[in-house]
């Protein structure tokens, strides 16, 4: 059986279904095999129960909690089912050594009952301990990831965070078999931003930069991804959007930025933005190529008088 799982792991297609159910299959086989060996050899003790449960719970560091839950069920079936059937004299305990046993039936049942009670109590305590530890660890890791992937000024994704989100979106689409769909990417550059800094100072420029994502979010969907690409450039990654719809959305964003007045001190700052849009099919969506094409479209928008949207779409 272990060899068959090893072979299957190389042959099954990698998609969302197999990535969820195959670990359950492996964990269920591991836990039930370990418990079955203990039962057949007469090693069903509190110590082996704690070892089995503890080793399973360490999987919480690698897999979703639902995977651990379903993968543990075969182990619990063998443990409780075998113990209860033995106590009712339906199946023998430690059948490998039958009929040569080292204990009386009464003492054997006494040991099984103590094992059931002790393993259950310790298992529940371990589950609570692991769950508490994992919860605090995940909160800490999430906070650290936010510090690494967020731009401190705008509180949107930074360049690294955008790159990770792009790869995650492409992988998700590929696993779902949506290879013939487009992934759309947009870059916007604030027009004449240096003049804003010169006139209002860097504090005024920072105020403008903080307001741009808020304006964009009002005109985008919650699943669309916004981030600061660098300096006065922002990136938008469109999820489940055709190039034509993305073009229309960017035009709406352009008008919203142009019409918005940003309050700073006693002034109202008006700004415009140039947009570049590009799209590639999922099946060969290369991040570097898509950024280059989007940057070329942005350059064309600047050369066309700024405050407009230009595109470079793969046909």
From TrEMBL:
Q: Which residues form the GGDEF domain?
A: 181-314
Any one GO biological process: cell adhesion involved in single-species biofilm formation
- GO MF: diguanylate cyclase activity
Q: What organism, scientifically named, is this protein from?
A: Acinetobacter towneri
| Reaction it catalyzes | 2 GTP = 3',3'-c-di-GMP + 2 diphosphate
The UniProt record lists the EC number as: 2.7.7.65
Q: Name one GO cellular component term.
A: plasma membrane
Q: Does the keyword Cell cycle apply?
A: no
Q: Which InterPro entries does this UniProt record tie to the protein?
A: Diguanylate_Cyclase, GGDEF_dom, Nucleotide_cyclase, Rev_trsase/Diguanyl_cyclase
Keyword Transmembrane helix assigned to the entry: answer is yes
Upper taxonomic lineage: Bacteria, Pseudomonadati, Pseudomonadota, Gammaproteobacteria, Moraxellales
What stretches pass through the bilayer? 20-40, 46-63, 68-91, 111-134
Keywords from the UniProt entry: Membrane, Transmembrane, Transmembrane helix
From what superkingdom does this record's organism come?
Bacteria
Q: What class of enzyme is it?
A: transferase
List required co-factors: Mg(2+)
Q: What is this protein called?
A: diguanylate cyclase
